[in-house]
Amino acid sequence: MSENDNASAYREIAVLSIVPGIVGVLILVSWGLAHWEPGPYWLNAGPALVATLFGGYLRFISGFKDIFNRKITVNVFVTVALIATIAVGEFRAAAVIVFIMSVAGALESYTLDKTRRSIRNLLDLTPKMATVRRGDQEVAVPVSEVRIGDIVVASVKEVDPRSLFKKGQIVRAVIVRTRKEKSRPDGSYVRFDDNAAVIIGKDNLPKSTRIFGPIAREIKDLGYKKIASMAQEIV
User: Fold this and answer.
1) CB of 96 within 8 A of CB of 73?
2) What DSSP string runs through 99-134?
3) For residue 120, is pLDDT > 80?
């Protein structure tokens, strides 16, 4: 991770910590005032009530909206619990609930943002062109034009420790399914949830012993009978 990435991550953590931090400080202030009793009850209850409203207002809004729309959600339960806790005068208990929810929300937001960044980084690594063997020649074509049955020349990026292949090894693989729809002579179309290929040798036989997921029936029609026999499903 670069220094810029580290700085960005620290800034994000700092921003996400603002609400839980303020709520936590107000809870400590309320507890301190209650412990030393420098004044009337409302003086120590006030910071806890402010913490509850400041940190939980989005929960309140979402909860009331869900109630209005006759939906039973987590926000409804949290809203009811907070109102009941405040109604019996347990302001610090309500503030503690809000603090826990705000910390959980911050962690969830940080995790989701980190996942999105990782996905974007992976997409940036996706090659724009692919080397495809068609007939006796290897040609470079846009990745979007790679078809089921094409043999591509690829480099292994990640491997299982027990794998027969090594990281960086150049391999040949036949495309067995694609997200892009493929038209068929009968006018129908077929497409899959992901792209997948099977590594093959010079004899066009699979190097693997298992094939996960479905494959297109065109693979069998093209003569890859061994691959077809190993597939979980042929579509």
Assistant:
1) no
2) HHHHHHHHHHHHHHHHHHHHHHHHHHHS-SEEEEEE
3) no
Dist. CA 176–CA 39, nearest whole Å? 76
Concatenating the DSSP letter of every residue in the chain gives --HHHHHHHHHHHHHHTHHHHHHHHHHHHHHHHHHH--S-HHHHHHHHHHHHHHHHHHHHHHHHHHHHTT---HHHHHHHHHHHHHHTT-HHHHHHHHHHHHHHHHHHHHHHHHHHHHHHHHHHHS-SEEEEEETTEEEEEEGGG--TT-EEEEE-----TT-SS-TT-EEEEEEEE-SS-EE-TTS-EE--SS-EEEEE-TTS-BS-S---SEE-THHHHTT-HHHHHH-SEE-
CA pair distance 21, 64, nearest whole angstrom: 25
What are the structural domains, with CATH classification, of the chain? 3-124 (no CATH), 129-234 (2.40.150.20)
Please give the Cα distance from 65 to 35 (Å, whole number).
38
Q: How far apart are CA 15 and CA 136, in angstroms?
A: 58
Residue 26: how many CB atoms within 10 A of its CB? 23
Name 178's Cβ contacts closer than 8 Å, sequence gap at least 6: 146, 147, 148, 191, 192, 195
Task: Please count the residues of the chain.
Answer: 235
Residue 116 has a pLDDT of 77
Per-residue pLDDT for 57 more than 60? yes
At 144 the pLDDT is 74
Torsion sign, CA atoms 168, 169, 172, 176: negative
Task: Answer for the pair 169, 155: CB distance below 8 angstroms, yes or no.
Answer: yes
